[in-house]
Structure formats: C-alpha cells, structure tokens
Amino acid sequence: MPPATTKTGAKAATATATKTVAAKPKGLRGVEQRFNKARRASILLKHVSDPTRLQVILILAEGERHVGALCEQLEQSQPAVSHHLALLRHGGIIAPRRQGKNNFYSLTETGTELARVVTNLID
C-alpha cells in the first residue's frame, strides 16, 4: 500500500518541483539577459527609426518644449507631431508634463542617452 499523501507533503513536492524547473545554468541566464537587452535595444531603435522622431529627441535634448513649439520647429501639423510624441512617450523616451491645457515634453533618462548617442553619430 502506498504511503498516504498529505496536503503538506503535496505542497512540499510541488515547491521542490517548481524550484527545480526555475533553476537555470549560469550560462543560460547570461544568454537570456543578453537577449532581453538586445530586444530592448531593438524596440528603442524602432522608436527612433524616423527622422522626425530623431529631430524631436535632438530638440528636447536642448530642453523642455511645448507641443506648439515642436510643431513650429519641425514645420509639421499638431496631429502629426502628436503622433510622433505618442510613440516616443510609449517607448519611455520622453515624458509629458501637463500645465493647464498645455502639454510640455522632456527627455527621460533613456531619451537623454539616446540623444547623446545620436549626437555622437551625426557630429
């Protein structure tokens, strides 16, 4: 007759099985980390793969701007600029600040790093 399984015994067995599955060799963790970094870089590069978005990053590297000022500098309509700003915002490259009815944008830490990289590439 097999030994009776208790709830505590079943939980312990499940916990042990989970720990065994979760443990990965050190080399695989490095590969996974590198892959995740590469995926994040790929996403960021897609967000800045448009000349208008690159211009926005370079303009915001000089300081915070109101959407209207960005439209003037880029010589584009407000809806077009807002579309680019939304993509950059979702990518974590810029951050909005609302003051009344006006939206101001500035670079995040990631955006500042991207601006530095882009500036080094084009200078």
Written account of the structure:
This protein has about 120 residues and is mostly helical. It folds into two domains: about 10-45; about 50-123, Winged helix-like DNA-binding domain superfamily/Winged helix DNA-binding domain (Arc Repressor Mutant, subunit A, Orthogonal Bundle), CATH 1.10.10.10. The chain is built from six helices and three strands; from the N terminus they run αααβααββα. Strands 1-3-2 form a three-stranded antiparallel β-sheet. Mean pLDDT is about 85; it is low at about 10-20.
Note the main attributes of this structure.
123 residues, Arc Repressor Mutant, subunit A, 67% helix, 3-stranded antiparallel beta sheet, mainly alpha, single chain
Separate helix tally: 6
Residue-averaged pLDDT: 84
Q: Briefly note the CATH topology name of the largest domain.
A: Arc Repressor Mutant, subunit A
**Regions with little confidence, pLDDT below 50 for 5+ residues:** 10-19
Query: Strand-residue fraction?
Result: 5-15%
The tally of structural domains comes to: 2
* H and E order: HHHEHHEEH
Helix content: 55-70%
CATH superfamily of the largest domain: Winged helix-like DNA-binding domain superfamily/Winged helix DNA-binding domain
In the CATH scheme, the class of the largest domain would be Mainly Alpha
- Largest β-sheet summary: 3 strands, antiparallel
